[in-house]
Write a structure and sequence with these properties.
Oligomer: single chain
Structural class: alpha+beta
Order of helices and strands: HHHHHHEEEEEEEHHEEHHHHH
Distance between the termini: 31 Å
Number of helices: 13
Shape: globular
Helix content: 40-55%
């Protein structure tokens, strides 16, 4: 593949070491506490903000990397530390990706800094897409946006479900239907400023994993935002809707454009979990004695570890390829973004389950982190498109047919 290199440059290696150090020294020691508390780890977020890991500049540098690898490297290392805290830190980036994919330069300059705040007062952002009746089926979205031309205002009504940072975010990016007759092509994304009346996220969800990351339903009851809060602007939206009504291709569907960019990154998060579980199980198997020898000397254990490590190496290359393609505007002709997310998510579940099995009863207890990793991993076959949806995307890319 022309232009794609497997060699990390010095900047990539420095980034990897920097994030890994933060994950090892700050994130891991705090992981169990915040998982038990099921609360947003504000002190850890503030520590990340102080060193520049959580903030607009660092994310912009990662987004600007022409290889597309920086964001993947950072996510793998951070989620190697802990997935719940990792999501608390990187959940904001999904909303930022939504602003990047659809917003104007002026909107980027005005709103992205507000998503992060500063080291003295860090903030969060939320990307609001999923709904109770429209999880993976984005085209079935019921949240509506109505435009008042005389006042140049949009009014949003609806309900969003399973929203990371929902209700506690400073900035909410909400995807809503402008023309329901066009399905997903009739949608647009809107910025909801801090303190806007009518937006509430007071139903926090108790989860199996990622417990340090806040998840809630978001309700929108006559939420009024100025016209300047439509990402990309009214003229651009009108042109896109006109093409859709005429039967042409409508580029830039608000939700799908963000998901296509984010899927390799979500895969990198799952890879970090898988690698952490593998490394812990490998070390444990080398130290645990049974029948007069370490259990890693048993072929069943050694082969299981060999298989997981092989998958880790293969999945990382799949993620890096998809990330490079996305960054360099190479089309996912075979659903490469979905391939990366699919294999990484299923690897995370397999690797953490295998780690629990290798540790035996110890792995089932909260005295060892593989129990938490096992719980954290499962969501990666569900959110940002289930494994079944990823297979559907890949199959449609390969066949050119509308497979159901």
């Amino acid at each position: 593949m022309s232009g794609f290199s497997l060699e990390l440059n010095e900047e990539h290696r420095d980034l990897k070491d920097w994030v890994h150090g933060f994950a090892a020294e700050v994130v891991r020691p705090a992981a169990s506490e915040w998982d038990e508390r099921e609360e947003t780890p504000w002190p850890v977020i503030q520590e990340a903000a102080k060193i520049g890991l959580y903030g607009f500049e660092s994310l912009a540098d990662m987004f600007g990397d022409p290889t597309g690898l920086s964001l993947q490297i950072a996510n793998e290392e951070l989620f190697w530390g802990d997935a719940g805290i990792g999501m608390a830190l990187f959940g904001t980036s999904l909303a930022v990706a939504g602003i990047f994919s659809a917003g104007s330069p002026d909107q980027l300059a005005e709103w992205v800094p507000q998503c992060y705040g500063d080291e003295d007062d860090p903030k969060l952002a939320a990307f609001c897409v999923s709904e109770p009746e429209a999880g993976s089926d984005v085209s079935a979205m019921r949240t509506r946006a109505r435009y008042d031309e005389a006042r140049d205002q949009w009014t949003l009504n609806g309900q969003k479900a399973w929203i990371t940072n929902g209700g506690i975010a400073n900035v909410h990016v909400v995807v809503a239907s402008v023309d329901p007759s066009l399905g997903a092509r009739g949608q647009a994304a809107f910025l909801v400023p801090p303190g806007t009346r009518g937006l509430e996220g007071n139903r926090k969800i108790k989860k199996l994993g990622l417990r340090a990351s806040h998840t809630a339903d978001v309700f929108l009851d006559d939420v009024v935002v100025p016209g300047s809060c439509l990402l990309g602007g009214k003229e651009r939206l009108d042109r896109r809707l006109a093409r859709a009504r005429e039967g042409g291709t409508a580029k830039g569907q608000a939700a799908m454009a963000t998901f296509e960019v984010s899927r390799p990154t979500v895969g990198a998060q799952a890879l970090g979990i898988a690698r952490a579980a593998y490394e812990y199980a490998l070390e444990y198997a080398g130290e645990r004695q049974a029948f007069g020898r370490s259990i890693v000397e048993n072929q069943s254990i050694a082969f299981a570890l060999a298989d997981v490590r092989t998958e880790i190496e293969a999945v990382r290359l799949l993620i890096w390829q998809a990330a490079w393609m996305a960054r360099n505007d190479k089309p996912f002709t075979a659903g490469q973004g979905s391939m990366a997310k699919l294999r990484a998510g299923e690897l995370a579940v397999h690797a953490t389950e295998k780690a629990v099995q290798i540790l035996g009863g110890a792995g089932y207890s909260r005295e060892h982190p593989v129990e938490r990793m096992y719980r954290d991993a499962k969501i990666y076959t569900i959110f940002e498109g289930t494994s079944e949806i990823q297979r559907l995307v890949i199959a449609r890319s390969l066949t050119g047919r509308h497979i159901r």
